Amino acid sequence: MASCSTNGHMNFNVELLLLDQALWDYVIVHELLHFFVPNHGKLWKSLMRLHLGEYEMQEAALRKIASQPR
């Protein structure tokens, strides 16, 4: 749904606009945090929790959407 490059560019798939706003928040925060933490380790997870609380439901919803045939 999105990507963050090492030179500071963020790209978002237009299909994100078709999803629930809570999923937008997850994707945007996810990518913004990669400017500070390049991986999905403990620090990244702690910062996700700080900004979004229990973010795992949104993460699971996006994985389910991504696994569906288009």
Task: Please give a structural write-up.
With 70 residues, this protein is mainly α. The chain has one domain. A two-stranded antiparallel ribbon has the order 1-2. α1 runs antiparallel to α2. The radius of gyration is 12 Å and the shape is globular. The two termini are 14 Å apart. The mean pLDDT is 92. This is YgjP-like metallopeptidase domain-containing protein.
Keywords, separated by commas or semicolons:
mainly alpha; 9% strand; two-stranded antiparallel ribbon; 51% helix; 70 residues; single chain
In short:
The protein is mostly helical and 70 residues long.
Beta fraction: 5-15%
Sheet bearing the most strands, described?
A: 2 strands, antiparallel
Strand order of the largest sheet: 1-2
Classify the secondary structure makeup into a structural class.
Answer: mainly alpha
End-to-end separation in angstroms reads 14 Å
- SSE string: EEHHH
- Give the fraction of residues assigned to helices: 40-55%
Number of helices: 3
- Tally of extended strands? 2
Mean model confidence by pLDDT = 92
Give the overall shape, derived from the CA principal axes.
globular
* Quaternary structure of the protein: single chain
Structural domains: how many:
1
Radius of gyration equals 12 Å
Low-confidence stretches: none
